[in-house]
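Input record (one chain):
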Amino acid sequence: MPWSPADDIVVLLCTAPDSHAAAAIAHKLVDSRCAACVNIVPGLRSIYRWEDKVCDEPEVLMLIKVRRDQAAQVAETIRAEHPYDNPEVIALPLAGGLDAYVGWVREMTAR
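The corresponding structure, as predicted from the sequence alone:
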């Protein structure tokens, strides 16, 4: 199996209140070539403290594949488009992946 290092790629995690909000953000990111792909995972339940109150809310999770050098720009786009005052946007490094997929992510996010 051809395997490539992918330290130039990160996966951003971002929650949203529903699939509609997540899809709007995902389309903007993919249309602008900032993200190669956004997976929207429904059925998430988040329990967190906000404004000194414990909240228990349904959410969806976005898995956003981007180049590391574009992650800050993607985070700014998410912040501008997101309905939350303080959206979750965290990056996980990618250790590696299949050659063809890693190459595709790079190609889809090239400008």
